[in-house]
Please model this.
Amino acid sequence: MTIPNDLPKSIASSVYQFPRYYAIGYQWNTKAECDFVEACLETHRGRKGGRILDIGCGAGRHLLELAKRGYQASGFDVRQEMVTFVHEEAKKARLKIDVSVGDLREMRLTSTFDIAICFMDTFRYLLTNEQIIRHLKIVAEHLQPDGLYVTDFWVPRQWDQLANDMYQWEQTENGTTVKVFYVQHPDSVDPVHQTFEDELVFQVEEQGQTREIHGERVRTRLVLPQEFQALVTASGVFDVVGVFAEFDLLKPFQPEHLSWRMISVLKKRAS
Model:
């Protein structure tokens, strides 16, 4: 799989400066992911609904969908462009959503929630064990006693895919097609700290023109399944109540169901 480099227009800028394209490109699994959130609540808390926190909410697709379903939706993202876009979309849809600029590495929260979510690889911006454990403790502090935390991040399906993987998909809305490439850079691997650089690239087809938008190369952490379990245990605040290969409670994360995403459901321990 290769990314063409002969497109007529190329923008050497972050894909996050184009939240509308981001929203189009990432809309493909929103309903299934929100259905999964509700299934987790029913299974592990006995009821749907309540207050939800979206950590690294991006263009707000989960917030918007869950607010439509009656949830009290809050979220934050490190990019002001994304936050502004979510505000605008919520206003158009006449939905009440509380969204602000924030960083999962330095979370400052004032409310408590029934469930928190951190999807599409955002969790891997936590680069050290200390950052991960501190993050888990802060999230737990702001959950109800039986609150849930659902994470979703990339894991390699084969050992030779370590920091050498690529995925591609495309979505179309109102005549605009966005092709998304998730690219890892093996030349950037730090084997001691288990980090490497990855990047998003958008190819946008709109009004008869095609252009390519490159994101920054960003350093992220490789977190393997058994390692994540150990870090959750070390935090002392959560139990892992399920790990899944897809957003489906019937597909546990086992060799026969492996995918490039590992979805973990954590439940706050009783104090």
About this structure: Helices lie at 19-25, 30-45, 61-68, 80-92, 129-141, 225-235. The two ends are 49 Å apart (CA to CA). The chain has two domains: 9-16+157-220, 22-155+223-268.
